[in-house]
Amino acid sequence: MNATPPRPRLVKTVDELRGILDGVRRSGRRIGLVPTMGALHEGHLSLIRASKAEYDYTVVTIFVNPSQFGLGEDLTEYPRTLDADMDALTGCGADLVLAPSDEEVYRPGHATWVEVGAGAEPLEGRHRPGHFRGVATVVLKLFNMVGAQAAYFGQKDYQQVLVIKLMVADLDLPIEIRVCPIIREPDGLAMSSRNACLSPDARQQALVLWKSLCLAGELVEQGECDTRIIAERMRQTIAMAKDARIDYVALVDPDTLEPVDRVEGRTLAAVAVHIENTRLIDNCLLKAES
User: Fold this and answer.
1) Residues annotated catalytic, as ranges
2) pTM
3) Which residues contact 165 (CB under 8 A, 6 or more apart)?
4) Does residue 80 sit within a domain?
5) Considering the chain, what percentage of its residues have pLDDT values greater than 70?
6) Contact predicate 55/160, CB 8 Å
7) Cα 281 to the chain's mean position, in Å?
């Protein structure tokens, strides 16, 4: 008879978390961290498996961070599915889940924030003012709560990872940042917790994000290097979805996120699009043949 897969331990306070992890560290085990906002999908589970492969003990955090949502954004509609998330985590390699309340993370009188630099200003920063201030603050808090040796993030949130890497370097944080590939549905749509908010029709329309990125790759392979031409063709592809509203289509330096005129070497193609009432992002790295 097969044994029941192990279910991770669920804790909701930092004191309980630290009590458990003190014992983990005393036993000589090394800790990996996977920060999430819940509504888990295969993209999240791939991060957990990557942590499990490299570290002895994996902590998953589930916290819908209010400080990274701006006025009019989807904080109240963001899916909260803790019971289903715990089921998804059973047997996948997670050892412990921290699911704190807003009050546990932001205690009364909380007044300290991480101010982020130039890497947070373009793209998402331009369209979501204050977003990365909230991201960097909560991620720093989670790093301090857990004290892991490494944290795992997905490439889909490319700019977020870049901002976190800069914060780690600037503040001399003793943690490694691991970046794992985007996990996609069979039809190419990048897995996202927000996909659950899409109607069947919007779900089909959302494929234009991936189609636009594939087109960019094809154009570069064919020798097109002018980013204005590539971006315009990408916009035309996205506009084929009747309910699409573009925030940005950008071709930028992958290290600085500064716009580039030509695809030479590695270039990041990034898109942010509203489909009906759901905002989706996606990206890919392009490389021109030398």
Assistant:
1) 44
2) 0.96
3) 177
4) yes
5) 98
6) no
7) 10
